[in-house]
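FYI - complex with iron/sulfur cluster, inputs then prediction.
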Amino acid sequence: MMPWDKLREECGIFGISAHPEAARLTYLGLYALQHRGQESAGIVSADDQRLFVQRGMGYVADVFDERRLEGLPGHSAIGHVRYSTSGESGLANAQPIQIDCWRGPIALAHNGNLVNAAQLRRELERNGAIFHSTTDSEVFLHLLCRSRRRTVLDSLIDALRAIRGAYSLLVLTPQFLIVARDPHGFRPLCIGRVDGRYVFASETCAFDLIDAQYVRDVEPGEVILVEDDTMEPRFPLSKGKPAQCIFEHVYFSRPDSLVFGQSVNRSRRRLGVSLAREHAVEADVVVPVPDSGVQAAIGYSQESGLPLEFGLIRNHYVGRTFIEPRQSIRNFGVKVKLNPVREILKGRRVVLVDDSIVRGTTSRKIVHIIRSAGASEIHVRITSPPIVGPCYYGIDTPTRGELIGSTKTVEEIRHFIGADTLGYLSLGAMLKAVGNGERFCSACFTNEYPTLLEKEEKQKELFDDPGAEAISPI
Ligand code: SF4
């Protein structure tokens, strides 16, 4: 497996209502969202009576061909690309999930992670529910189907009231599409218009590809019923403190997207400018770690007056897995992905700009590669503070003990990665650079989580004691 040491984005979702090319536009939308998940891809489409599903493992281009798209007729569709955040990777966990229940066929695509899924699942299983996957997302459908409310919309709202955590959600039936975002707004979800119809996507880069116009974000806590070309928004959930994931701007999202209503490109440049102000150093050249460090390096270069050069070239054609020779001693995993440009690096004092350090192992290898290419000094600059805690809201993070920021001081990290100096952007400067810092979650940098967490001890206690009190699903 490629030893690439980054937090991993969770999922990307896309939906469209009442469009004759629904499945094909969804397919294109998923192409644009491929960076948000590369382990599986799926689309469910709807005609007036039925749902049609096509899902598979791999990239969007691997999963869908003409024959599979032909198998997705109808006027509306939802799509999903996925990494494994909760539950193992595998076709059973691929989304959208599609079920037939007493309410008829329903499909769901979920981006995020629920913090009380284990408790809810246990309670549901005690009451006879049978789960087909190990993902959090199936909990929504079980709760929805058990609600005694008259409509699917009201039943979904019942389910959402029992759920805590992060969700941007698309629910499709033959009659309508429902769109929802959790009250904290952890994960993004945007609304667009194409050919007079509504379209929804995790990031606006998906709209650009299909010539849709960005309208606005789905608001935190908002639930929208979409029928044909009409949208009925409502706010049935208790208000939460806004906690939009700041890492979407630091690293996850594409720089050509608007996320949470603001340009990712602009945020990253401002992060770079702030970094240059907080951690100036005498050097010859600014080099980004591609691709996510590029915009910040531009900002650093502009503020510092140092020239920007692409001293590392990324190989974009490396697959998801890379098999190293058994007797590997030369960091093939990193080298196959990043190659140094010696004439840029040789004999020069390099400012290396990256977005984050997770375990430190990849940063160490990159510093080694640059040093081997002849750099005389390497000054690593990071556009976020040290990561000190895991994410419970849909980002794949190592355990706290594996996060180098939680176990070592900045000086110890500098020593570990082999840099001459190391500078992390401060929390205050990061929040300021992305605009209104009040609206963001930054829990993995502070250990101050915006929701109650399901402590592992509590879950274990519930597991060990069948009589223990659990949250009622409805
Ligand atoms: S904990 Fe970190 S990665 Fe997770 S939602 Fe908050 S800012 Fe984003």
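The longest helix spans residues 264-278. The two ends are 42 Å apart (CA to CA).
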